[in-house]
Specification:
Restriction endonuclease; 36% strand; two-stranded antiparallel sheet
Length: 200
């Protein structure tokens, strides 16, 4: 039976961090194939692009991935990793929840199909509750323990630059409780990577 948590735990021992979202996608694909899973990257399902498609017996697993980093320079297993600061957490939150929305029509009420939206990051501003309670991206906050559901939209004060390409509201059919889990930790760093997984 497909167990995404076990797969990510196994991957974390081999690859505690990634250089990019594509690196994350390819590494996850590779480790699943090493487990004799039939899987493909960048598949089109009913007109929607999904990052990973997996065949699990008579069922399909669809996975959307996001990889967001704050600046990090670390040497691991003979390799140097210099990760950039992505910033724009408000847009990152929107994009992650948009992935959830993209999976819902493909998976909800479909017994043969399950979806996962996964965000991997070392940026604590994704998993910590913000000090400012009324930010322009309040609806899109992803802090640990929050429940998201219904119509999510920017506040009126959000700038055009912030909303560019992300103007549309996001309407979720399901209700999701957000629970972050540890992915990897580095002795010389204050915080390692955590991931948020939403099951659709």
């Amino acid at each position: 039976m497909f167990n995404i948590e076990y797969i990510l735990e196994t991957l974390s021992r081999k690859r505690p961090l990634f250089r990019s979202e594509k690196d994350f996608q390819e590494s996850l694909l590779q480790i699943m194939r090493s487990m004799d899973m039939k899987c493909e990257a960048n598949s089109i399902i009913n007109g929607t692009k999904v990052d990973l498609w997996i065949e699990d017996g008579d069922k399909e697993i669809l996975i959307q991935l996001k990889h967001k980093t704050k600046k990090l320079s670390v040497h691991i297993d003979g390799s140097q990793f210099d990760l950039k600061n992505h910033g724009a957490q408000d847009q990152g939150r929107y994009d992650f929840l948009k992935d959830v929305k993209s999976l819902e029509p493909l998976c909800i009420d479909k017994n043969h199909r399950t979806g996962f939206s996964i965000l991997l990051t070392n940026d604590h501003r994704y998993w910590e509750k913000p000090i400012k309670h009324d930010s322009v991206d309040k609806d899109f906050q992803l802090y640990d323990g929050r429940k998201v559901a219904g119509i999510l939209q920017w506040k009126e004060e959000a700038s055009n630059g912030t909303k560019s390409g992300r103007e549309n509201e996001i309407e979720l059919k399901g209700t999701y409780e957000l629970r972050w889990k540890n992915y990897s930790k580095f002795p010389t760093q204050d915080s390692g990577f955590r991931y948020l997984r939403i099951d659709v």
